[in-house]
Amino acid sequence: MSIIDFHTHLDEAWLGNSLMSSEDFIAGLDKTGVDIACIFTMQGFYEDCPRHNDLLLKRADRYPDRLIPFATVDPKQGAQAVKETKRCLSNPRFRGMKFHTWIQSFAPSMVKETMIDILHCAAEHKVPVLFHDGTPPYATTFQIADLARQVPEADIVLGHAGLADYVYPAGQLLRDIPNLYACLCGPRCGDLQYLIQEAGSHKILFGSDFGIAEWLLLAERLDNVYAADLSPDDLHRVLYQNAARLLKLDQSPLSAADATSIVPKGDLT
Ligand SMILES: [Zn+2]
After folding, report:
1. What is this structure's pTM?
2. pLDDT digits over 113-130, tens only?
3. For residues 37-74, b (16+ Cβ closer than 10 Å) or e, as one string?
4. Residue 110 lies in domain
5. Is residue 96 part of a domain?
């Protein structure tokens, strides 16, 4: 069975602690049967987004048929953040954006105008935008879902499907907001059954947070999906099909030929 992990981190370090190498990351995917991973930064949430976007792209380009980089920007920087979004998305290797509003220290309402510009830009490039969710004060599931309501053209993904305390409202929000999706990264097998019952299996994607912890985390999070005893169709949607649809893998399959070096730094309007 083909598997896409829609929520991982591949970076050199986090808060001064070394993270795993790209080789160990790929070995972890192989060990658990994961074909493709969407990779996010960690250090880029704290400092110098452009530099970390470039470093992430470089890591992804070593395995262009396995790794899909998602860019990040700091919306508190206003127009500069929109410019960096355009710079990254002008390279088709970046197939998504990732925000961690809690670590990046902004509530979406604080940077509303910039965030809406970024989401319109993502919608124009037809790439999904994944937000960490499930933790107050900046990242409640309600705050993230509200962004999906404000820009209905953008595909918004709850990075943790409500995580723990917000799984119940996550199901209702997914049901009610057509362009809102959720990554099952954290919630357990009973939560997955609930989310599918409430919102439908077309709304849920598999994700693990692999990369900030060893491959056992990925194995455990896959077990959460298998233990939910889904029908073969629902299982395929959650593990592969929904992610493949948001990532446009049918129209633009991953290819080694697409690997590039660094995105140009030139002025993009
Ligand atoms: Zn994460």
Report:
1. 0.95
2. 999 999 999 999 999 999
3. bbbbbbbbbbeebbebbbbbbebbbebbebbbbbbbbb
4. 4-246
5. yes
